Amino acid sequence: MASLCARAVRQSYSLVASSALTRTSPRLLCTATQQKNGHRSEEDTEKPEQSAAEKVLTEEKTQLEEQLKEMTEKYKRALADTENLRTRSQKMIEDAKLYGIQGFCKDLLEVADILEKATESVPKEEVTTKNPHLKNLYDGLVMTEVQIQKVFTKHGLVKLNPDGQKFDPYEHEALFHAPVEGKEPGTVAVVTKVGYKIHGRTLRPALVGVAKAP
C-alpha cells in the first residue's frame, strides 16, 4: 500500500513539473527571440552611423589630398621662381664684374686715340739719333700706347681695326659708302677711328667707310 502511494506521488510530481516546464518554455523562447532581435536592430542602427562616419572621413581625405596637391604645386612654383631669381642675380653679378668698368674704359679710349694720333703724326724720317729729343718723345709715346693696350687686353678690351673686312653693323658704323678701286663692295675701305669690344660686347663701333659697286 505504501509502495502504491509513493508511486502515485512520483507520477503526480512528474506531471506537475512537466506542465510547469511547458508553461515556462514559450516565455524563455520569446525572451531569447526579443534579445536576438534587439541585437540585430542595434547592429542595423550602427551600420548607418558607420556609413555616415566613413563618408565624412572620405570627404575629409579628399579635401586633404586636394590641399596637399595645391601646396605641392605652390611649392614647386616657388622653387622654380627662386631658382630663376638666383640665376638672374648670378648673371647680374657676373655682368657687373665683366662690364662694371666699361664706362671707365670708354673714357680711356679717348686717351688711347690721342696717343695713336700723336705717334702717327710724327714723321718717321725725323725720328733719328740726329734729333734725340724728338726720338725720345716718340719712343715714350709708343711705349705709353703699348702699355695702355696691354692694360686694355688685361681687362678684356680688344681693338677693332676692320680694314678690308666684311662690313658688320654690330661692330662697325658706316660713315659713307663709295666705290673704291681694289675693294670688294660691302667691305671696309677706310677706318677713320678704330673700335673696341669688351668681353665680346661692342663697346665702341669702328667708324668706317664702306666700298660699294661703281
Automatic annotation (TrEMBL):
It is found in: Mitochondrion matrix. Keywords: Acetylation, Chaperone, Mitochondrion, Transit peptide. InterPro entries: GrpE, GrpE_CC, GrpE_head. GO terms for cellular component: PAM complex, Tim23 associated import motor. Essential component of the PAM complex, a complex required for the translocation of transit peptide-containing proteins from the inner membrane into the mitochondrial matrix in an ATP-dependent manner. Seems to control the nucleotide-dependent binding of mitochondrial HSP70 to substrate proteins. One of its GO terms (biological process) is protein folding. Residues 33-56 are annotated as: Disordered. It comes from Seriola lalandi dorsalis. Belongs to the GrpE family. Its main location: mitochondrion. The keyword Transmembrane does not apply. This is GrpE protein homolog. Probable component of the PAM complex at least composed of a mitochondrial HSP70 protein, GRPEL1 or GRPEL2, TIMM44, TIMM16/PAM16 and TIMM14/DNAJC19. Binds to HSP70, HSC70 and HSJ1B. It holds the Pfam family GrpE. GO terms for molecular function: adenyl-nucleotide exchange factor activity; protein homodimerization activity; protein-folding chaperone binding; unfolded protein binding.
